[in-house]
Amino acid sequence: VSSLECYKCSNNHNNWMDCTRDKVECKPFQDACTSFVSFHSKLFICLGEKWHNISKGCDTMERCEYRANVVNQPLCDRSSYNEWACVECCTGDLCNYFVTVSAS
User: Fold this and answer.
1) Is 53 helix (H, G, I), strand (E, B) or coil?
2) Strand 84-90 and strand 32-41: pairing?
3) What is the dihedral of CA 54, 60, 61, 67, to 10 degrees?
4) Consecutive sets of 10 residues in the chain, 104 residues long: mean pLDDT of each?
């Protein structure tokens, strides 16, 4: 039996390069691929330039859904003017290729 395979990256500013090239074989108990996406200002300057921060990897669906419920409820609006963060969970090999970075 082969394990789930997910894309992995850490703190990338876009969804290309490492985030769509590097893959990891999940541990047998990990049944979900995850993506964490945030949009924030550099050095927490309110009016400063903002950028996306993307991390991907493996997790259990239960833990991923818990993280999504904690993070997404107050923060996940994907606007171009507010700071926000979202957790996305999926199942299936390499299902975390795409991430949603805007509401439109």
Assistant:
1) strand
2) antiparallel
3) -50
4) 91 92 97 95 66 95 97 89 93 96 78
Beta bridge partners of 39: 52, 84
CA distance 45 to 61: 34
Give residue 59's Cα distance to chain centre: 12
- Domains of the chain (ranges, CATH numbers): 5-90 (2.10.60)
Residue with tokens 């923060």: 75
Distance from C-alpha of 46 to C-alpha of 65, rounded to nearest angstrom: 30
Q: How far apart are CA 89 and CA 47, in angstroms?
A: 31
Per DSSP, what are the bridge partners of residue 38? 53, 85
pTM: 0.89
Per-residue pLDDT at 49: 77
In this predicted structure, what is the pLDDT of residue 43? 62
Beta bridge partners of 90: 33
3 state SS of 84: strand
